[in-house]
Amino acid sequence: MAGSLNKVMLIGNVGRDPEMRYIQSGEPVTSFSLATNRRWTGGDGQLKEETEWHNVVAWRRLAEQCNEYLSKGRKVYIEGRLQTRSWDDQATGQKRYRTEIVAERMVMLDSRDQRSREGGAGFDNPEAPHPGENEIDLEDTPF
After folding, report:
1. Which listed residue, 34, 71, 118, 131, has the most CB atoms within 10 A of its CB?
2. Is the residue at 132 inside a domain?
3. How many structural domains comprise the chain?
4. For 47-87, how does the pLDDT look when each residue is reduced to its tens digit (9 = 90+)?
């Protein structure tokens, strides 16, 4: 089978209020963190829990929707792809890396909004950049 797949599906809680900004071309980009939890029973019979933090980036119309509708604590479904970018840290001169989920779809899952009680309010981003498309240099300002 030829080809490959880069697909991420997460359900978690927004860790900080989304931050929207505009790149030089005028396109909006919104970033926020998402916490997912994993629970299991350890070998000692004790319940254990682990939280994983994800960096999420949304572009264009989905960026505007995430900025408008999401806030810290909201439960949300995010679908997208993994992307790792790198930059040179101007303070230390070291190469830095950041792995992000580039969101292509967002569905609000909690009951803070009437729409979510009716099956969730979802937003797709049909204009999401594809790998290699609209690549930008975010310089030394990681989200």
Report:
1. 34
2. no
3. 1
4. 999 999 999 999 999 999 999 999 999 999 999 999 999 99
